[in-house]
Design goal:
By secondary structure, this protein is α/β, with parallel strands linked by helices. Helices cover about 60% and strands about 10% of the residues.
């Protein structure tokens, strides 16, 4: 089923490969034109535009990280001009898959989903090959008289480790959310607003809480304490 891109909020991300391209706008203007043309054909809100000046071989992309943060903050979609600007980068694909952020390419709107499916299929194929090789190795070991197996009677311990891993994952997501929202809260505090006022401001800006609930002064205070501890 094709995704409807109407009435969405977007964060645009552009990448140029050299400092000279970044200063001259070479390549950048074409990317911006493609994104703006795509968005002009549908109701939208373009919240921010991030520009990365770096080599395609560089996996460290601070502006992309900021773009991801803004997408999570505003529940927005990351938009890029051309799929081939980024999709060929292993670093970008890895970051996209781990970020949980949805994205769309202006030159091929559905390529985002297609690409993810292809990558998933490749990963699944590789996992199946590893599994087959492992089974073959175990079968050969068993034929040589190697005793296989392990302790299968410690299920409570296994369950406890699973619960612990889940808690760690939730904590990591909460930390990321705190880091995303904290700069905005701090700027509002600097403007003289208290936590209750900030809660009203966040609600008015349609910035959702981590669980999609309503902001309160207590939630704002709790999030700031968490951010300060990171």
């Amino acid at each position: 089923m094709a995704k409807c891109w109407d009435n969405l909020r977007f964060i645009a991300y552009y990448r140029v490969s050299t400092d000279r391209q970044g200063r001259s706008g070479l390549g950048l203007e074409a990317q911006q034109e493609a994104v703006h043309k795509f968005l002009s054909q549908r109701p939208h809100t373009l919240i921010a535009e991030k520009i990365e000046v770096e080599s395609g071989r560089n996996a460290d992309r601070p502006e992309l990280a900021k773009a991801f943060g803004l997408c999570r903050l505003h529940r927005a979609t990351l938009i890029i001009a051309k799929l081939d600007r980024l999709a060929r980068s292993v670093a970008f694909v890895s970051n996209i898959l781990e970020s949980g952020v949805d994205f769309v390419a202006a030159d091929f709107p559905e390529a985002n989903r297609l690409t993810i499916h292809i990558l998933s299929a490749v990963a699944e194929h590789e996992a199946r090959m590893i599994s087959d090789r492992t089974k073959a190795a175990l079968k050969a070991a068993k034929a040589r008289g190697v005793v296989l197996g392990g302790d299968r009677g410690n299920l409570p311990s296994v369950a406890a480790r699973g619960a612990q891993a889940s808690a760690v994952a939730r904590s990591r997501q909460a930390d990321e959310r705190a880091q995303d929202v904290a700069p905005l809260i701090m700027s509002l505090r600097d403007a003289g607003k208290n936590f209750e006022d900030i809660a009203i401001e966040l609600q008015g800006r349609e910035i959702p809480t981590a669980r999609g609930g309503v902001w309160t002064g207590q939630k704002v205070s709790r999030l700031m304490r968490r951010a300060l501890q990171l």
